[in-house]
Amino acid sequence: MNRGGLPEMLHCLHAAASEGADISVLDRQRSRHKWQQDQLLIQQHHQQNQPLPYFSDNSDQLGGVFMSLNGDHGGLHELLLGGAMKPDPGLENGWGGDLVGGLNYASELEKNYAIQRTVSCPPDVAAAKIAAQEAALSSAAGRESSKKRKADKTQTLKVIAEEKTEEKKMKECFEEDSKITEQNSNNNNKSSTITTATNSKDNNNNSKEFPKTDYIHVRARRGQATDSHSLAERVRREKISERMKYLQDLVPGCDKITGKAGMLDEIINYVQSLQRQVEFLSMKLAVINPRLDFDVENYHTKQNFTGCSSSVPTIGTPSEMMDQSLLQFNSLGQEVSGSILEMLVNPMDVSLRRTISAPVSVPHPFLDSSSLNQQIQHVTWEDEFQNIYNME
Amino acid sequence: MKSRMPENRSESMKQEFLKKWIKGLQIYSKNSNKMTILDRKNAIKQSADVAIASTRNAETQWSRAVMARIASKNETVVEKILGRKVLLVDKNKSRSIITCSKKIVRRSIVNAHRKKARVVRSISSVVEDGSIIAKKMVKKRTRVLKRLVPGGEQMDEVSLIKETLDYIASLQVQVDVMRNIAAAAEILGRTERLSF
């Protein structure tokens, strides 16, 4: 009967709990009292209806009271569990505080029950009322100090610990009682111990859940900050690495190097070599050209010849033209080819037109400084350059 | 040379650079009747630098820094030449470049002094701290790179790498064209000598 009633009540309370977090503790208590009174009535009725030996009857009643208490306890924990299971909105509405109140209330109730058990009389309404008031107060305080949720949570943890100790005490009491009471009540006690065990488990779950939710919440907060920061940092690093990749493509001999320092080394070397090449080439040009307007004259003649450049009998496509010019450039060191002979006739125009109109893309060996040096060695120009330099 | 840059872009850049360079040379030659070989070399280099910088239309920091540096190096006369030259090169954007360049010159000079002082301090502190080697190495190299890339002292790391990318591409174009011109001039010189 009691066992039948327990899940019923649990269900009822659970439903009430799951109905919403807005149900005040008082309401819950009222419903519980109602149920308890009903239960007692039913019990009495049952006793009257079922003629049992007095001894066993009494024990049954006792057990029933116990059971009701335990059931109540379980229901409360169910409630708490339901409240705790409620996701974020509950937490945000100061459920933590409410829960604190609830837990305080639970401990209060347990104290009351201890008294009740010793007296073995129907629940003391006044004490319950006081407890309810306290709970309401504490819950209000919890709501007020929702900002100090952390402190509250530590409080709740303490409360839970207290509750656990009280539960242990209760268990001991139950055991003592079970020694006194008969088998029937013994069974009840067993079930009650089981329920308390489950309750304690629930409590553990609760206590586990608290830091968990707290952790997630805090992480969300901190995470937002760190997340945006780390995101920005990541974006920056990605940008750098992406550009470093491009640089790796651009700088020859940088493909095989891993590591930023090595790549930077290569880049530095390459930039330096390019800058030196510019220096060197400008020096070279300065040496070669006795006057600065040397190129300019050519440029002018080239401009005059722009109309003719299309009609120049070179091979049609610019790429082929380019190739030809490259051939010329490559073969200069060794011998004067036919095309250069052609250039001799009309030297500057052709060469410059080639360099300008067929924008020069030189093959790789040509760009290498080593090949350049080789080329220079071929040419008598270097000696001349040195002579001039010594003269200066 | 593997051309990583899109062909069209690099070729158009080369043409632009060559045009501007030759115009710059023209102006230099007009202003200087008698030049030593070093003067000529400087003139060629500066005109080439300005030309390659002006191909970027002052979009990049390094090109602006190059313009400013060259304007600051050679005093008012060269500045005038540059101004004229820039006007010749690009009528629309030249004025902004010139007006910018004067400001930048002052700024860059001041900043360069400041940054130098800072760099010296930071080097000493880093050495004293003796933090992680890899980071130190990267920092050191970044500093060197900042010195190499014109106007790099004022850049942060991200923009430094971006500018370096652009600068290297431009330098490649510059070196390419100059080398070809030099080769052509060489041939011509040789042929002239031969013909003599």
From TrEMBL, chain A:
<dbReference type="InterPro" id="IPR024097">
    <property type="entry name" value="bHLH_ZIP_TF"/>
</dbReference>
<dbReference type="InterPro" id="IPR011598">
    <property type="entry name" value="bHLH_dom"/>
</dbReference>
<dbReference type="GO" id="GO:0005634">
    <property type="term" value="C:nucleus"/>
</dbReference>
<protein>
    <recommendedName>
        <fullName>BHLH domain-containing protein</fullName>
    </recommendedName>
</protein>
<keyword id="KW-0804">Transcription</keyword>
<keyword id="KW-0805">Transcription regulation</keyword>
<feature type="domain" description="BHLH">
    <location>
        <begin position="224"/>
        <end position="274"/>
    </location>
</feature>
<dbReference type="InterPro" id="IPR036638">
    <property type="entry name" value="HLH_DNA-bd_sf"/>
</dbReference>
<dbReference type="Pfam" id="PF00010">
    <property type="entry name" value="HLH"/>
</dbReference>
<feature type="region of interest" description="Disordered">
    <location>
        <begin position="177"/>
        <end position="210"/>
    </location>
</feature>
<dbReference type="GO" id="GO:0046983">
    <property type="term" value="F:protein dimerization activity"/>
</dbReference>
<dbReference type="GO" id="GO:0003700">
    <property type="term" value="F:DNA-binding transcription factor activity"/>
</dbReference>
<feature type="compositionally biased region" description="Low complexity">
    <location>
        <begin position="181"/>
        <end position="201"/>
    </location>
</feature>
<keyword id="KW-0539">Nucleus</keyword>
TrEMBL record, chain B:
<dbReference type="InterPro" id="IPR059002">
    <property type="entry name" value="IBH1_N"/>
</dbReference>
<dbReference type="GO" id="GO:0046983">
    <property type="term" value="F:protein dimerization activity"/>
</dbReference>
<keyword id="KW-0805">Transcription regulation</keyword>
<keyword id="KW-0539">Nucleus</keyword>
<dbReference type="InterPro" id="IPR036638">
    <property type="entry name" value="HLH_DNA-bd_sf"/>
</dbReference>
<feature type="domain" description="IBH1-like N-terminal">
    <location>
        <begin position="11"/>
        <end position="72"/>
    </location>
</feature>
<dbReference type="GO" id="GO:0006355">
    <property type="term" value="P:regulation of DNA-templated transcription"/>
</dbReference>
<dbReference type="InterPro" id="IPR044660">
    <property type="entry name" value="IBH1-like"/>
</dbReference>
<keyword id="KW-0804">Transcription</keyword>
<protein>
    <recommendedName>
        <fullName>IBH1-like N-terminal domain-containing protein</fullName>
    </recommendedName>
</protein>
<dbReference type="Pfam" id="PF26576">
    <property type="entry name" value="IBH1_N"/>
</dbReference>
<dbReference type="GO" id="GO:0005634">
    <property type="term" value="C:nucleus"/>
</dbReference>
